[in-house]
Design goal:
By secondary structure, this protein is an alpha/beta fold. Among the domains are: 26-180, Rossmann fold (3-Layer(aba) Sandwich), CATH 3.40.50.980; 437-532, ANL, C-terminal domain (GMP Synthetase, Chain A, domain 3). The protein is globular, with a radius of gyration of 23 Å. The termini are far apart.
Length: 537
């Protein structure tokens, strides 16, 4: 047994080291739960409850309407919504119709939205009414034919020739045309992630990938769950692969109630905890920081929370201890990535938790640390290298990007690009993050996206973007800029320019002007050198 496989010894007999995967689709999760637990609460949204029988009916109505509008198997259906019941209906309805869900961050600005719609070829989008003008502004340059508009407030506005979500549901004939699926090959979701070329890549997650990850996580945590009785606080975004899997799909698989909030607002979250008493709370460290630092957090009944899955950013050890002290919850820090549907590792509830590590592999997951030079030789425990992963949750490849796919998937292994080590017990430690990615408040931010915008500014000659430590957000975005000769610009001007061209979470909070940037002998900017310098604000 190699050091990377030493983790298998931690599994008790009651937890399977490998999982048997049924030949089913993601949409089968909802069908089966609705049959077994028809009157269980499925969704809770600002006090409105939807039981599983009702949710299943809404999904079939949406599926039928899609089919009546000529949506075929393999067509892409984009969803650009915050957390709300319509998200779940659209997601499962599209999958039942055989379509491919294209997840779109609601914070995307026009240029980002246009790229994803054009790259995916989506002809249908479900969008929040407040974002409708954004979609209309790019529609002519995309393949969009069907725009379905969701209003979370009563008496929504009119949308010209486009339809409201409610009216669209009535367009079905009540029947759903059965679709022949090959779960191992048929793509269910395009999950867009950043690329080294600056272009976002659509990770193709098959029905088998997504279903496998749900079953893997259930098996890993099954002694923490009471099927049919859990209440999951769903505030991490469903468009993010973490929210999609750990909140929406896992809740439906376990017949749990998903308590949905469209965004993280501290007072709203605390009041929701007080009123709904969730038992599980997947989140990111900034959420736990906010709750821990609230002076009266314990008055809101946060002790109802038993299990927290933390991901997307490192969990500070002191924060974990303080949060657990106030809630009696167990924080289990894990690791994953869009290309893995996403979960590959987590600190186990059934064995030692090691603060600072992201735990051990979930069932049916192989992993090892290979040398950085060749990517083929496995290194010894404690040595640094690249973590590579194999398992049924690993993506099919990148949408229309064969070269990127070949570079990332090699001989059945996913090359993560993350520098890591394993200890003698097989616990994984992530040392350096993937390709300079910045993680702020749980959002993955790719410097190239911001740098491309900065280079379009008429006064900017050179620009580099890095992440700098922030006690609340995890990291802040910092732009280091060299201006063109004779040109001038202020911090405020650069920030405002970015606000006009980037989603809010990508906008630099720190801007520094320099006469030159550190570079290698061949002219490559030394990003690491900038990161290691003392932060200048």
């Amino acid at each position: 047994m190699t050091q990377a496989n030493a983790w298998l010894a931690h599994y008790p007999e009651s937890i399977a080291k490998t999982v048997d995967l049924p030949n089913k689709t993601v949409s089968h999760i909802l069908q089966e739960t609705a049959e077994k637990y028809p009157t269980n609460n499925a969704l809770s949204f600002y006090g409105k409850k939807i039981i599983y029988k009702e949710l299943s009916s809404l999904v079939y109505s949406f599926t039928s309407a899609l089919q009546q509008n000529q949506v075929q198997k393999g067509d892409r259906v984009a969803i650009m919504l915050p957390n709300c019941p319509q998200y779940v209906v659209s997601y499962y309805g599209a999958l039942t119709a055989g379509a491919i869900v294209t997840q779109v961050n609601p914070m995307s600005v026009e240029r980002e939205l246009e790229y994803i719609l054009k790259d995916s070829g989506a002809e249908t989008i479900v969008v929040l009414d407040a974002l409708y003008p954004r979609v209309k502004s790019v529609q002519a340059r995309t393949n969009l034919k069907n725009i379905i508009v969701v209003s979370l407030q009563p008496a929504g506005q009119e949308f010209a020739s486009d339809r409201s979500f409610e009216s669209f549901l009535t367009e079905g004939n009540g029947n759903v045309i059965p679709i022949e699926f090959e779960p191992e090959h048929d793509v269910a979701v395009l999950q867009y992630t950043g690329g080294t070329t600056g272009r976002s890549k659509g990770a193709m997650l098959t029905h088998r990938n997504i279903l496998a990850n749900v079953i893997q996580c259930y098996e890993f945590f099954k002694h923490e769950f009471q099927v049919g009785k859990e209440r999951c606080l769903t505030v991490i975004p469903l468009f993010h692969v973490f929210g999609m899997s750990s909140c929406m799909n896992l809740s439906i698989y376990t017949a749990s109630e998903s308590i949905m909030l469209p965004r993280f607002d501290l007072e709203e979250v605390l009041n929701t905890i007080k009123n709904e008493q969730p038992t599980t709370f997947p989140g990111v460290p900034t959420m736990y920081v906010a709750i821990t630092n609230h002076p009266r957090a314990e008055e809101y009944g946060i002790s109802s929370i038993r299990t927290c899955n933390s991901g997307s950013a490192p969990m500070p050890i002191e924060l974990m201890r303080e949060f657990e002290g106030k809630t009696s919850a167990k924080i289990l820090e894990g690791y994953g990535l869009s290309e893995a549907s996403p979960t590959t590792h987590c600190n186990p509830p059934f064995a030692d938790r090691k603060p600072g590590s992201v735990g051990i592999g979930v069932p049916s997951t192989e992993y090892k640390i290979v040398d950085l030079a060749t990517g083929t030789a496995e290194v010894s425990a404690g040595e640094l290298g690249e973590v590579i992963i194999k398992g049924p949750q690993i993506m099919k490849g990148y949408w229309n990007m064969p070269e990127e796919t070949a570079n990332t998937l090699r001989d059945g292994w996913l090359y993560t690009g993350d520098i890591a080590k394993v200890d003698e017990d097989g616990y994984l430690y992530i040392i350096d993050r993937k390709k300079d990615m910045i993680i702020a408040s749980g959002y993955n931010i790719y410097p190239r996206d911001i740098e491309e915008v900065l280079y379009e500014h008429p006064s900017v000659q050179e620009a580099v973007v890095i992440g700098v430590p922030d006690p609340y957000r995890g990291e802040d975005v910092k732009a280091v800029i060299v201006l063109k000769a004779g040109k001038r610009a202020t911090n405020e001007e650069i920030i405002q320019y970015c606000k006009q061209n980037l989603a809010a979470y990508k906008v630099p909070r720190i801007v520094e002007f320099r006469d030159q940037l550190p570079k290698t002998g061949v002219g490559k900017i030394l990003r690491r050198t900038l990161r290691e310098e003392k932060v200048k604000k």
